[in-house]
Design goal:
The structure holds two protein chains of two kinds. Chain A is an alpha/beta fold. Chain A is built from 18 helices and six strands. Chain A has helices at about 25-45, 70-75, 85-100, 120-135, 150-160, 180-185, 190, 200-210, 215-225, 225-255, 265-280, 290-300, 305-315, 320-335, 340-350, 350-360, 370-375, 385-390; strands spanning about 5-10, 50-55, 60-65, 105-115, 135-145, 170. Chain A has a six-stranded mixed β-sheet with strand order 3-2-1-4-5-6, with helices on both faces. In chain A, α13 (about 305-315) runs antiparallel to α17 (about 370-375). Chain B is mainly β. The chains are: A alpha/beta, B mainly beta. The interface of A and B includes residues 99, 133 and 164 of A. Chain B: Pfam families: PITH. Chain B: InterPro entries: Galactose-bd-like_sf, PITH1-like, PITH_dom, PITH_dom_sf. Chain B: Belongs to the PITHD1 family. Chain B: This is PITH domain-containing protein. Chain B: One of its GO terms (cellular component) is cytoplasm.
């Protein structure tokens, strides 16, 4: 919750028309900028953010440091691309804008998006960095877009000359699948200096982990409408688990022979989500015991509720963990929401309901012995229900 | 301008003269161009410990001997004189320029503004030199900014102790925080004595 005034330097040069970041470099940059503004103003209401563009006819300050998010977002509209980026002038003018901030107690920070080739010499950049360090201005550099020989070295040199006690950071974002904002969310540019991230960053990270759904509203929800936020989170978790179950099923069809070895994409996705959720679990949102529960499950922390389910899960092969996870999480949601948990588990225990759900999942084969084991693990299930299961198998369609 | 302290301190209690360090708001002390953030707070201590350099001291960044120290006080003080103990081997500051009651000064401001007073310092490793102020200008100091532009040839500037001699007034300087002027005038706020029925007189 450090009190900070930030100036964001946007690259709106001709190089930003390129489409190697979807939908275009400029659009990806604009999304990242709006997310950063939101994160900064959320982490401390007295934080201010300003914007300037470095290319075009010349460096132009679009907004001086202000805490009014609407004004910042509106000045991002209708920006023209063109010209060449002038990094040195941009940084110096940002420093000047910060010098004249209204609240002198704020720490000064500049965030630079360096998307085009850098025409300045390393020496000149180091001089600028030294001046920033002397006036205790921190600098975050986002190296994306055009890849040019020597560009990373120049930016690294700039960073080392500015860096004072690790307050400054650099992030290299190569072109590829991931959106620029998603990559930035997990970096210190977003989360601040090791404070573990604000609730906004945590929520945004969870959203990013849920299959790349970039949901700006998702992050703002906890402030405005906590119940809606809860509902969104729950449905997000279920959707993610369902998609992973589907992916896992498809992979399982492909390599039936491998027992106990997870299919690569599934294990990768599980690792990715578990690391993402590990990061997210650190800033414990006290109000959100539900999310904590779901995260504990996804990290397979033993001792969570429904020990019967856990015991059964260990019997089932690894392949089924995703499906079990989804079911367990939906069950836990039910147990938190209603004072009569038995109602929900009864619903889930209802065999016909479960079978219909399972058959609606693409790739799930109700005849699979693993699935049958799983169903047996549901609380409230007895052997009789398992028998009912077998009776119903012949009548189900194979998908 | 400088007087030497050429008697032993057991005769009278020197430390009580240099007790203004107790009135410094240490949490809000900041310095620009310091090598270790937060090390500036270690230079404000009691007179007896001025030569005790076992702890931290204030050092500027490598290759740049300029230093700027911002010191707010908890109440208004009157400063009679200032003492600075520097480092050895040319790392003592050679000049001192002070600004009063201005906050948010950075290096470009400090270099261009006219200081309230400036001194040429000498190497004062034993801490026996003090630099007197033009007392009339230092009568109600809420915060003071010390600018050390250069050193005696060293690569960096080191400062082990900064002391202030004077007295505290227990008053707080009036800082105008927010003023709300009338948006629309309210006649009832502006009744003259004639209207309220008191004795009227021509002003």
């Amino acid at each position: 919750m450090v009190l900070e005034a930030t100036m964001i330097c946007i690259d709106n040069s001709e190089w930003m028309r390129n489409g190697d970041y979807s939908p275009s470099r400029f659009q990806a940059q604009a999304d990242a900028v709006s997310l950063i503004c939101g994160a900064k103003t959320q982490s401390n209401p007295e934080n201010t953010v300003g914007i300037l563009t470095m290319a075009g006819k010349g460096v132009r300050v679009l907004a001086t440091p202000t805490s009014d998010l609407g004004k910042i977002l509106s000045c991002m509209h209708g920006l023209e691309m063109g010209g060449e980026m002038n990094l040195a002038a941009g940084i110096q003018i940002a420093q000047l804008a910060l010098k004249h901030r209204q609240n002198k107690n704020q720490q000064q920070r500049i965030i630079v998006f360096a998307g085009s080739p850098i025409k300045h010499e390393k020496k000149a950049l180091e001089m600028i960095g030294k001046k920033l360090k002397k006036n205790s201005v921190a600098l975050d550099i986002v190296d994306f877009g055009e890849e040019e020989d020597g560009k990373p070295e120049k930016l690294e040199a700039l960073l080392t000359s500015v860096n004072n006690n690790d307050t400054s950071h650099i992030v290299h974002v190569p072109a590829g699948q991931n959106a620029l904002s998603d990559v930035l969310i997990s970096t210190p540019v977003f989360t601040g200096d090791g404070e573990g991230g604000s609730g906004f960053a945590a929520a945004a990270a969870a959203a990013a982990a849920a299959g790349g759904v970039s949901d700006f509203d998702f992050g703002v929800d906890p402030n405005i409408d906590p119940e809606l936020a809860l509902a969104l989170r729950v449905s997000m978790e279920e959707e993610r688990a369902r998609q992973e179950a589907a992916a896992k099923r498809a992979a399982e069809e492909a390599n039936r022979q491998e027992k106990g070895e997870e299919a690569q994409p599934q294990s990768d996705s599980q690792n990715a989500t578990s690391t993402a959720t590990e990061k997210v679990s650190d800033p414990m949102d006290e109000d959100d015991a539900l999310l904590k529960q779901a995260l504990a499950l996804s990290m397979n922390i033993p001792g969570s509720d429904s020990s019967a389910g856990d015991a059964q899960m260990s019997e089932a092969t690894n392949d089924d963990q995703e499906l079990a996870l989804a079911l367990q999480m939906s069950m836990h949601d039910g147990s938190k929401d209603s004072s009569a948990p038995s109602d929900v588990s009864k619903v889930l225990g209802d065999q016909s309901f479960m079978s219909s759900i399972l058959s609606s999942l693409p790739g799930v084969d109700p005849n699979d012995p693993n699935v049958k084991d799983l169903l047996a693990s549901l609380p409230g299930q007895s052997e009789s229900q398992q028998k009912k299961d077998e009776d119903e198998q012949p009548s189900k369609d194979d998908k | 301008m400088a007087c030497t302290h050429d008697h032993s301190c057991e005769d009278h209690d020197c430390s009580s003269n240099w007790s203004l360090y107790k009135h410094i708001d240490l949490s809000k002390v900041t310095a620009l161009n310091e090598a270790n953030p937060g090390s500036v707070k270690s230079v404000f201590k009691a007179w007896e410990e001025r030569l005790n350099s076992s702890g931290e001291h204030l050092e500027s960044n490598e290759g740049d001997p300029e230093l700027l120290v911002y010191i707010p006080f908890t109440s208004d003080v009157k400063i009679k004189s200032i003492s600075v103990v520097g480092g050895a081997d040319g790392t003592s500051p050679s000049k001192l320029r002070v600004f009063i009651n201005r906050d948010g000064i950075d290096f470009s401001d400090a270099q261009s503004m006219q200081p309230v007073q400036e001194w040429d310092l000498v190497e004062n490793l034993q801490g026996v030199l003090e630099y007197q102020t033009r007392y009339s200008k230092f009568q109600s100091v809420a915060n003071i900014t010390l600018h050390f532009p250069e050193s005696f040839g060293g690569d960096t500037t080191q400062i082990h102790y900064i002391g202030f001699k004077g007295e505290a007034t227990q008053l707080k300087r009036d800082v105008v925080a927010t003023i709300v002027y009338e948006i629309t005038p309210n006649p009832s706020d502006h009744k003259t004595r004639a209207e309220t029925g008191g004795l009227s007189h021509v002003e």
